[in-house]
Amino acid sequence: MSTQPSQPAALFSPALAARFDQFVTLYPVKRSALVPMLLYAQDETGYLSDAVIAEVAERVGVSELEVRNVISYYSLLRTRPAGKFHVQVCTNISCMLRGGNEILEHCKKKLGVPNKGVTSDGVFSLEEVECIGACSWAPAAQVNYDFHENLTPESIDRVLADYRGRAGK
Amino acid sequence: MATLSTHPDCVPVVSYRFGKGATSIDRYLELEGYEATRKALTLGPDGIINEMKASNLRGRGGAGFPTGLKWSFVPKQSAKPKYVLVNGDESEPGTCKDRLIFEHDPHSVIEGTIIAGLSVQAKMGFIYLRGEYRYLLEITEKAVAQAYAKGFLGKNIFGSGIDFDIVTQTGAGAYEVGEESALMESLEGKRGIPRIRPPFPAVVGLYGGPTIINNAETIATVPHIFRMGGAEYAKLGTERNGGTRLFCLSGHIERPGVYELPMGYNLRKMIYEVGGGIPNGKKLKAVVPGGASTPALTADEIDIGMDFDQVGKAGSMLGSGGVVVLDETTCMVEFALRTMKFYAHESCGWCIPCREGTDWLKKSLTRIHEGGGVDKDIVNIRYLAENMLGRTFCPLGDAAAMPTIAFVQKFRKEFEDHLEGRGCPYRRVREPEPALV
Fold first, then answer.
1. Is the pLDDT of residue A5 over 90?
2. What is the reported pLDDT for B45?
3. Residues of A with CB below 8 A from B189's CB?
4. Which of residues 48-87 of B touch A (CB under 8 A)?
């Protein structure tokens, strides 16, 4: 990445840059904007690259090291690209009791990737995740931010096919 | 997308506006919306806290601390600004109730935040949702904007001369941030490492100012207390356990779902009548009564009322309202292991007993489950877990240790059945895991 941290327009869309300008004014201290800013930056750019980290650090007024410390703590934040559709299968207790492990194993086979793997075409990535708050509608998965609940191997196939169909768009 | 489940025994208080289009402020106003705030404005800080105390509302996050009492700890005079912090970082396994609140009735959270602010003369509130709940943040952001447009937030709210602002945001994936002091750290843009207490947040909290921190369900209940009257709300529940709560039924149960039931509702009835019992004619083996951190109850321990005191007397905790039902086909070692994998993953690593304890417990449970365990592993698991209790900055260490002790104590034979190379006698889905080296 050769993008210079001093050129925010190259990193973020004008809308996101404007949003970040506002973020830092919302709180008594600028640094409070850090966690949501990282998440929104990742949503737009795919992952937290060195350039993104440098830019965010500058915006909230902390060192890059401090930003990296924060990133390593939060499970949703990543410093490597994921698939366009990040499939997050919950196997925590409520999901486990209703077949969450079967859904995970099924996704591994269907996508041909292990846990935390990315498909070679970059369309899907797979991750086993902790409780996503869908316990009463288990087993469940999130694809990016969308919930898919009461899953069966057949229904997750349909879910994946639907995303696959949207991949080119 | 997430819908409330109902049963004739349900008492809709928090869920009173669910499914009625109340995300729109105009619809919310038709449903007695913001009347609670108007009433609270006439009562003033002391009046608000008295009403809260009369309601016998206890914190819905898990600890069950009386909410009115908690608010009364905030000092009247403070050199630093005071804050209200709403904990919507719902992540206790088995718990999915806050999702319904934000999805169906975000204005109740906004109202509760304003009323909490009025009780301590705070000028600013934060609503913090877990990162996975992005769609709920969007719903809540819209509701906040509507409240600003009506003059219910911002300068001179309701023409009262009082200013109050609300900022909404999400986290980015961390169970630990559901703990109040770690939540404050996260909101300050840091790793969610717990703070040592005292001082408690009511005295030194967010940005060093006195802070009210409550679970989202607690806050969403507040306007209903003012709508109904504290004493009326209290009457719905049991002694010292006012009102109703959202119970999340999950696991091996015929009708899983989130149901609003009175505090003290019988657990057996909850499972067999409200939830329709165990599917496929199977027998009940155990119930986790209040989220993953609460010690499991056996099938013959479920004739109890679901309130903080009665479940406590039965040796467990009411916790976050996540009732996880396990039938006779469940391997308790696998269940204990999955629970511990979670805590080992979520331990922030700050305190050694938690960081090392959860990891070693995970390793020992894996070894037993895979058939490599020996008698001494069972002894060691209890010894390790018991030595984690009370020795960490925050309750995560306890949350990992307490259920583990109960699993070993109550289901010891199942652990023994795995020993001496036998491994798991139950149906396996996952590939065997590398055993302890």
1. no
2. 97
3. 29, 31-35, 60, 62, 70
4. 81
A positions 123-162 inside 8 Å of B (CB):
130-138, 142, 145-147
- Residues comprising chain A, all counted: 169
Interatomic CA distance for residues B172 and A11, integer angstroms: 21
User: Which chain B residues are closer than 8 Å to A134 by Cβ?
Assistant: 2, 96, 99
For residue B362, give every residue at least 6 positions away whose Cβ sits within 8 Å of its Cβ, in sequence order, or none: B337, B340, B341, B344
Span B246-259, average pLDDT: 98
Cis amide leading into B199 (omega within 30)? yes
Please give the Cα distance from B227 to B115 (Å, whole number). 12
Q: In the 8-state DSSP scheme, what is residue B14?
A: T
Residues from chain B contacting residue A105 (CB–CB below 8 Å) = 429-430
Does the structure show a pLDDT above 60 at A1? Answer: no
β-pairing verdict for B265-266 and A124-129: unpaired
A159 and A87 in contact (C-beta within 8 Å)?
no
Which chain B residues contact residue A60 at CB under 8 A?
A: 189
Which range has the worst mean pLDDT, A6-15, B62-71, B331-340, B355-364? A6-15
Cα–chain center distance at B250: 15
- In chain A, what are the domains? 14-73 (1.10.10), 85-167 (3.40.30.10)
Model confidence, pTM:
0.96
pLDDT tens-digit readout, B188-228: 999 999 999 999 999 999 999 999 999 999 999 999 999 99
A131 to chain B: nearest residue by CA? B93
ipTM tops 0.90: yes
pLDDT at B437 over 50: no
Smallest Cβ–Cβ distance between B99 and the set A74, A75, A133 belongs to A133
